[in-house]
């Protein structure tokens, strides 16, 4: 049976309604991308779940994958397919994507510099990290940098406390690496600490779960939903690595309110964006840098360097500073490659426009 939705349940509010006003006169109606399957999308609407495809115009105008819908997007739809089960050959058409208020992206795997959108329109990003042998503070810093870059609010979920003998010590390490970020140690096996998640799961809020394979995301999804909707597997005992139990991004409605986006585990997580998330993720280093004698201080051997002074006095760990420099170099490299790619795409766009003009005049002769 096809379930109908109230848009408010899905995160719709007055701000989205105002953004949608220009589409009403065309007879379009709103929906939210719940899942993606190759070139088709499952969309939640007031009519229920529908299958949708992007319009030819949108696909033709798209210069890169990020110009097409992603899970979490609000879109303008044309065509009233009442049920995707009864009308499998009658896809509705996605005519436009509403402006995204947040976007969690990473660099696509491989040598490309292309952007891969993980999820959009997120209010809170739950960064799930297991407190077992796979615990890694440097990885947490990397996830935090991407989370701050996205525009969403990051919360660190430290899972599997029942499998850790030194929870307080590891929480302390994370606090040093994530100043000002909420940290929630939990165990879905015992229920310990899970109640602290409740304030983030109210109606109108969208949460995304991100983390490495085996971190416990699928187990947490099942716990929050109160039923086993995601497969879970035991992790390898020797290194705590898990299998990808979630294979695609998908929206879930939480019984206590709110929308949850589950994502596949990430074995490769590379930065993408302007690098602005670094100043948020490493705000302590940014604060020290602001006290350097010279505004262009490189924090190496310059006189009056407040960063090096903080390291010497034990206020800032050498490991954290090295992690910051590594991510900074990576962000600059991605920025250079992205700018080059943008130039090539702009050239490609004008080449396409020129070709259209030529074809137009040839048909008029």
UniProtKB/TrEMBL annotation:
<dbReference type="GO" id="GO:0046872">
    <property type="term" value="F:metal ion binding"/>
</dbReference>
<dbReference type="GO" id="GO:0019843">
    <property type="term" value="F:rRNA binding"/>
</dbReference>
<dbReference type="GO" id="GO:0003924">
    <property type="term" value="F:GTPase activity"/>
</dbReference>
<feature type="binding site">
    <location>
        <position position="305"/>
    </location>
    <ligand>
        <name>Zn(2+)</name>
    </ligand>
</feature>
<comment type="subunit">
    <text>Monomer. Associates with 30S ribosomal subunit, binds 16S rRNA.</text>
</comment>
<feature type="binding site">
    <location>
        <begin position="159"/>
        <end position="162"/>
    </location>
    <ligand>
        <name>GTP</name>
    </ligand>
</feature>
<comment type="function">
    <text>One of several proteins that assist in the late maturation steps of the functional core of the 30S ribosomal subunit. Helps release RbfA from mature subunits. May play a role in the assembly of ribosomal proteins into the subunit. Circularly permuted GTPase that catalyzes slow GTP hydrolysis, GTPase activity is stimulated by the 30S ribosomal subunit.</text>
</comment>
<keyword id="KW-0862">Zinc</keyword>
<keyword id="KW-0694">RNA-binding</keyword>
<feature type="domain" description="CP-type G">
    <location>
        <begin position="111"/>
        <end position="269"/>
    </location>
</feature>
<dbReference type="InterPro" id="IPR030378">
    <property type="entry name" value="G_CP_dom"/>
</dbReference>
<keyword id="KW-0378">Hydrolase</keyword>
<keyword id="KW-0699">rRNA-binding</keyword>
<dbReference type="GO" id="GO:0005737">
    <property type="term" value="C:cytoplasm"/>
</dbReference>
<feature type="binding site">
    <location>
        <position position="297"/>
    </location>
    <ligand>
        <name>Zn(2+)</name>
    </ligand>
</feature>
<feature type="binding site">
    <location>
        <position position="292"/>
    </location>
    <ligand>
        <name>Zn(2+)</name>
    </ligand>
</feature>
<keyword id="KW-0690">Ribosome biogenesis</keyword>
<feature type="binding site">
    <location>
        <begin position="211"/>
        <end position="219"/>
    </location>
    <ligand>
        <name>GTP</name>
    </ligand>
</feature>
<keyword id="KW-0963">Cytoplasm</keyword>
<protein>
    <recommendedName>
        <fullName>Small ribosomal subunit biogenesis GTPase RsgA</fullName>
        <ecNumber>3.6.1.-</ecNumber>
    </recommendedName>
</protein>
<keyword id="KW-0547">Nucleotide-binding</keyword>
<dbReference type="GO" id="GO:0005525">
    <property type="term" value="F:GTP binding"/>
</dbReference>
<dbReference type="InterPro" id="IPR010914">
    <property type="entry name" value="RsgA_GTPase_dom"/>
</dbReference>
<keyword id="KW-0342">GTP-binding</keyword>
<dbReference type="InterPro" id="IPR004881">
    <property type="entry name" value="Ribosome_biogen_GTPase_RsgA"/>
</dbReference>
<dbReference type="GO" id="GO:0042274">
    <property type="term" value="P:ribosomal small subunit biogenesis"/>
</dbReference>
<keyword id="KW-0479">Metal-binding</keyword>
<dbReference type="InterPro" id="IPR027417">
    <property type="entry name" value="P-loop_NTPase"/>
</dbReference>
<feature type="domain" description="EngC GTPase">
    <location>
        <begin position="120"/>
        <end position="267"/>
    </location>
</feature>
<dbReference type="Pfam" id="PF03193">
    <property type="entry name" value="RsgA_GTPase"/>
</dbReference>
<feature type="binding site">
    <location>
        <position position="299"/>
    </location>
    <ligand>
        <name>Zn(2+)</name>
    </ligand>
</feature>
<comment type="similarity">
    <text>Belongs to the TRAFAC class YlqF/YawG GTPase family. RsgA subfamily.</text>
</comment>
């Amino acid at each position: 049976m096809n379930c109908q939705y109230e848009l408010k349940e899905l995160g719709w509010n007055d701000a989205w309604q105002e953004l949608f006003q220009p589409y009403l006169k065309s007879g379009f109606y709103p929906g939210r991308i719940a899942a993606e399957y190759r070139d088709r999308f499952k969309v939640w609407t007031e009519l229920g779940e529908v299958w949708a495809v992007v319009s030819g115009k949108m696909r033709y105008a798209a210069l890169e994958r990020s110009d097409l819908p992603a899970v979490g997007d609000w879109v303008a739809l044309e065509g009233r397919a009442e049920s995707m089960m009864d009308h499998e050959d009658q896809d509705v058409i996605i005519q436009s994507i509403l402006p995204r208020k947040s976007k969690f992206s990473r660099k696509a795997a491989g040598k490309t510099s292309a952007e891969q959108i993980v999820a959009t329109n997120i209010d809170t990003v739950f960064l799930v990290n297991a407190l077992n042998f796979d615990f890694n503070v440097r990885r947490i810093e990397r996830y935090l940098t991407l989370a701050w870059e996205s525009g969403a609010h990051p919360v660190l979920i430290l899972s599997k406390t029942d499998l850790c003998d030194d929870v307080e010590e590891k929480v302390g390490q994370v606090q040093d690496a994530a100043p000002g970020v909420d940290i929630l140690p939990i165990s879905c096996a015992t229920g310990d600490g899970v109640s602290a998640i409740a304030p983030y799961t109210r109606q109108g809020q969208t949460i995304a779960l991100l983390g490495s394979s085996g971190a416990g995301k699928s187990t947490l999804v099942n716990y929050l939903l109160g039923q086993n909707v995601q497969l879970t597997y035991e992790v390898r005992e020797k290194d705590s690595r898990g299998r990808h139990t979630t294979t695609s991004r998908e929206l879930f409605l939480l019984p206590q309110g709110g929308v949850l986006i589950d994502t596949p585990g990430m074995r490769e997580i590379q930065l993408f964006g302007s690098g602005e998330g670094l100043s948020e993720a490493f705000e302590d280093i940014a604060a020290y840098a602001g006290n350097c004698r010279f505004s262009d201080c490189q924090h190496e051997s310059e006189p009056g360097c407040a960063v090096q002074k903080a390291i010497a006095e034990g206020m800032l760990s050498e490991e954290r500073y090295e992690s910051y420099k590594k991510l900074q170099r990576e962000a600059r490299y991605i920025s250079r490659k992205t700018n080059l790619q943008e130039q090539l795409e702009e050239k490609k766009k004008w080449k396409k426009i020129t070709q259209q003009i030529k074809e137009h005049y040839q048909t008029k002769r």
